What we know:
Layout: H1 11-22, H2 29-33, E1 54-55, H3 56-64, E2 72-76, H4 77-80, E3 84-85, E4 89-90, E5 100-101, E6 105-108, E7 114-116, E8 136-140, E9 152-155, E10 160-162, E11 165-167, E12 178-179, E13 190-192, H5 200-208, E14 213-217, E15 221-227, E16 231-232, E17 242-243, H6 246-256, E18 260-268, H7 271-279, E19 285-289, H8 300-306, E20 310-314, E21 316-319, E22 325-328, E23 334-338, H9 342-361, E24 372-374, E25 385-393, E26 396-399, H10 409-412, E27 416-420, E28 430-435
Parallel strand pairs: 1-21, 7-8, 15-18, 15-19, 16-17, 19-23, 21-25, 24-26
Antiparallel strand pairs: 2-14, 3-14, 4-13, 5-12, 6-8, 6-9, 7-11, 10-11, 20-22, 22-23, 24-28, 25-26, 25-27, 27-28
Amino acid sequence: MTPPSHPRTPAMDDDFDDALALANGTAGLDAALGPAPGGGPPGASRETGRPAAVGWAEARTAARYAARPGEPAELPLPGALGHVLAEPLPALTDLPAFDTSAMDGWAVAGPGPWALDDSGPGVLAGDTPERLPDGHAVAIATGARVPDGATAVLRGEHGFAGGGRLTAPATPPHGGDIRPRGQECRMGDLLLPAGALVTPAVLGLAAAAGYDRLTVTRRPRAEVLVLGDELLTEGVPAGGRVRDALGPLVAPWLAELGADVVATRHLGDSASALRDALTGGDAEVLVTTGSTAAGPVDHLRPALRELGATFVVDGVAVRPGHPMLLAALPDGRHVVGLPGNPLAAVSALLTLADPLLRTLADRDPEAGPGPARLAERVQGHPEDTRLVPVSHRRGTATPLRFHGPAMLRGIASATALAVIPPGGAGAGAPVHLLGLPRN
Ligand SMILES: Nc1nc2c(c(=O)[nH]1)N[C@H]1C(S)=C(S)[C@@H](COP(=O)(O)OP(=O)(O)OC[C@H]3O[C@@H](n4cnc5c(N)ncnc54)[C@H](O)[C@@H]3O)O[C@H]1N2
Ligand code: MOO
């Protein structure tokens, strides 16, 4: 589909990608490809001598610094999930806010035996009990406020009540089974710093500490534009057409990276529909799929140029996915162009969309599974970084089969993508891993 005019896509490179897939990413590549042409600087195009696409790490850095975090917004607790705190979170109360019984039993004052008023249910959670005189006991429930004057809580299984008396083989130690006020925090203590991700546990803590709303960084709104007349949105592919694999994949992946996806739209291969979509809507980030090469219906780059966009990243020295792009529209919105080959699109998600969205959502740029050692040698591209689906466990990453640019079978059972430097990496070599959404 792509004429040889594209600056970064000589046909040999695509032979290379397919050969890598056939060779299972490890041995046998040289046989599949024949002798590799002579080396050159990373990212340089040896065949054409034209300027190279940027290196993989450089592209990620450019994407990370292409935007600034969103504005702060005050959201009710449920809506704040998945956002990042824009302000530190101080406790609005002591926690616990009062001396609390840690067990079901009796609150006791002083050493036993104790006089027991057993006329009612005792002190329940939510009650405001009266002062307990020395030598007295009162039944108490877990979580109930301990009466003033109580010196300990005696667990139900450690005492014997009857005839208006409570006895125990041993008096509980002073403060026993009482959670003292402020044990977890004092009012004003910093519970979490600005920048913390609001997880379900954070929502619980915030509620416990008295919050109804949280001040968080607004998540970027993203819209997915799926390009290609050949795509079917349902049923078994037939008649030379293929199922849209990226519509279902991209939106939840963007959400996992911190975006609110407002829509996924199928635009076919219409240049005018693409231009309209790039100029309309209120999403700050437009993520397109397909149309990144220079084929007859690859309208993305021409449309962006026509709209006066600035190319932040225009091709990346990475396999798969090297025609990927990141552009800024004149109004400041960003366009991430994912190639149509599905694994190439995943590569572009992790290379460009991930750092851009993390910055916009103010998320940790370095989050990921950390490094691992390769279980076996992985063949490299002579000049470009490779991203290879792996399964990693206990610090060892095993490369997976079916990692061709058009395949999703490998990535679907992968736990990470391993970053293979130009030239490859041997068995036991440490490699950087990129995490994948797990739900
Ligand atoms: N002459 C050359 N042709 C191509 C080169 C090259 O260097 N010279 N580069 C190849 C590389 S690498 C990639 S990656 C692709 C990029 O293609 P586009 O981004 O323009 O995407 P399309 O041409 O529309 O589609 C490519 C391929 O992917 C399939 N596709 C597209 N969208 C989807 C989708 N949503 N779900 C499933 N599959 C999809 C499409 O049917 C094609 O098979 O260009 C190469 N060409
Ligand atoms: O082969 Mo293309 O590298 O991006 O799929």
